[in-house]
Write a structure and sequence with these properties.
This is Lipoprotein. The protein is α/β, with parallel strands linked by helices. It has a domain of 154 residues: 3-Layer(aba) Sandwich (Rossmann fold). 39% of the residues lie in helices and 21% in strands. A 5-stranded mixed sheet has the order 2-1-3-4-5, sandwiched between helices. Helix 3 packs parallel to helix 5.
Length: 232
């Protein structure tokens, strides 16, 4: 049977036991406490893509874009004249509309000119043709310096576009449909090219330059449209 010791002898014994425990756990040993672990850092991946791989990717993307132009039965062309409020925009589109027939005939592409924004939305829906749109913006009349910007866009109209989202909403059941599942009228962008011109003078000096830029882009579009549809 162990008998607890009192007095100086008992105190010394307990101190020895406490010291032994401190040494066992590394306390009071004269060693510095370990520093807290530093947060782990990650360096960015610096692996570069070889020029050969990059070229293959670009060629694949270009071919994929071309494939989107395949199979369309013709083109609806729209450059605003009736709705144009800016005289320079009206002059540009009047001139382009007068020339676009020759450009289409060069590539033997069936086409129709949309004369209004109503035609622009209605004709692709009824004909199933691709929509080629010229979208222009200009500084206010009389403003100097002046600028004109433009986009030529190839748009595909889908009358019942939906997002197949059943996998996103597997438990929808009798709940209301997601907006992604409701058919929408959508103009999908398949091709585009843009430009911008500026001058310290009046914007009327940019009309011929803008017309030439639009017709150059129409030719580029028609060349790609012709190449994918006739494999030239």
């Amino acid at each position: 049977m162990n008998v607890q010791k009192n007095g100086p002898e008992g105190i010394a014994s307990r101190l020895k036991l406490a010291a032994a425990m401190l040494l066992m756990f590394g306390w009071g040993s004269g060693q510095a406490e370990p520093e807290p672990a530093q947060p782990q850092t990650f360096s960015p991946d610096t692996a570069s893509i070889s020029p050969a791989v990059k070229q293959k990717v670009l060629e694949h993307m270009k071919q994929t874009n071309l494939e989107r132009l395949k199979g369309w039965p013709g083109i609806i062309f729209y450059c605003p004249v009736e709705e144009a409020e800016n005289p320079a925009v009206k002059a540009i589109c009047t001139a382009v509309n007068a020339d676009v027939g020759n450009l289409m005939a060069e590539y033997k592409v069936p086409f129709q000119i949309a004369k209004s924004s109503f035609d622009r939305h209605f004709l692709p829906h009824m004909s199933g043709r691709l929509l080629l749109v010229v979208d222009l913006a200009a500084t206010p009349v009389g403003a100097q310096p002046a600028a004109i910007s433009g986009e030529v866009q190839g748009l595909a109209h889908y009358a019942h576009a939906v997002n197949w989202s059943s996998e996103l909403y597997p438990d929808a059941g009798g709940k209301d449909k997601s907006p992604l599942e409701v058919p929408q009228h959508v103009d999908a962008l398949l091709w585009e090219s843009n430009f911008i011109f500026a001058t310290p003078a009046d914007q009327s000096t940019l009309v011929e330059q803008s017309k030439a830029a639009i017709e150059e882009r129409i030719r580029n579009f028609l060349a790609e449209f012709d190449r994918i549809n006739h494999k030239r």
